[in-house]
Amino acid sequence: MREGTLRRDVLRGMLGIVAADVMMAGGMMWANADVTPKVYTRREWGAVPPRRPPRVLDRAPDHIIVHHTASPNASDLSRSHAFELSRQIQRYHMKSQGWDDIGEQLTISRGGHVMEGRAGSLPTIQQGRLVVGAQSLHHNDHTIGIENEGTYEKEDVPGRLWDALVGVCFWLCTAYRLDPSVAIIGHRDYNDTDCPGDVLYRRLPRLRAEVARALDDAASHADPPHPDPPHPDPPSDARRRLTSRHHRRLHGHEE
Ligand SMILES: [Zn+2]
């Protein structure tokens, strides 16, 4: 079995895609499926409340920014370590940087655990809206940020972290109807920073390609779109029509 096929099968199993409608726009296809990966909530990792309620925009972001935390490449892949990482980042962002809350919307540990970041991130993603973070100076009102634990200047990205990152980007591209080939970028594309490290930055083309394949795969396993009204058949066919779903340490990401 080719690696790509295997990965797609793993991803499909992981995300529980069975069958869904397909949404088409601008040449892209997204399955109307729930592809939300396991994301640990703020309550689960023990976040403190934000200083101020989050600012929520009634629109989707147009870019997904990939970061590294520039913290040590920990060998502890446990969930408790992942939760501690989120608490540490939140403390750093609120106490040392003086921000309202943790800066990023999502955090992924080296063990592949995904945590909600800024308050409200998880429900707003599901609604196709954006919680404004503090993760890319001058670009916070149109981007969503993923912090990946570690420093990737020289060392390679661990498999579990990578698979989780692919799954998260697949989810975000589906929820926000984004084309991964243009939407996924590195922090250095917007700001003067080494983030997300040379190694992770050089992997972005592969990330875009893997996410695009996952989207294609999800769309091809979903019910085909029905752009034309169905025949004068039973009204139950109507529900099969295309549905538009409403559907260093922890480096400084300037607010
Ligand atoms: Zn960054």
Give structural notes.
Residues 49-197 form the N-acetylmuramoyl-L-alanine amidase domain. InterPro entries: Amidase/PGRP_sf (IPR036505), Amidase_domain (IPR002502), PGRP (IPR015510), PGRP_domain_met/bac (IPR006619). Belongs to the N-acetylmuramoyl-L-alanine amidase 2 family. Residues 37-191 form the Peptidoglycan recognition protein family domain. The protein is α/β, with parallel strands linked by helices. The protein has one domain (3-226): 3-Layer(aba) Sandwich (Lysozyme-like), CATH 3.40.80. The chain is 33% helix and 14% strand. It has eight helices and ten strands. The strands form three sheets. Strands 3-7-6-9-5-10 form a six-stranded mixed beta sheet, with helices on both faces. The chain has a two-stranded antiparallel sheet with strand order 1-2. A two-stranded antiparallel ribbon has the order 4-8. A hairpin with a 5-residue loop joins β6 (106-108) and β7. α1 crosses α8 (204-220) and α5 (159-176) packs across α8 (204-220). 44% of the residues are buried. The structure holds zinc ion. Zinc ion binds at residues 67, 187, 193, 195, 253.
Shape: globular
Low-confidence stretches: 1-6, 233-249
Largest sheet: 6 strands, mixed
The rounded distance between the terminal residues' Cα atoms is 46 Å
Strand content: 5-15%
Q: What level of helicity do the residues show?
A: 25-40%
- Number of DSSP E strands: 10
Which ligands accompany this protein? zinc ion
Structural class: alpha/beta
The total count of helices amounts to 8
Query: Order of strands side by side in the largest beta sheet?
Result: 3-7-6-9-5-10
Mean pLDDT across every amino acid position: 85
Q: Please name the CATH architecture.
A: 3-Layer(aba) Sandwich
* CATH homologous superfamily placement: Peptidoglycan recognition protein-like
Counting structural domains, the number is 1
Written as H for each helix and E for each strand, in order along the chain, the element string is HEEEHEEHEEHEEHHEHH
- Oligomeric state, counting identical vs distinct chains: single chain
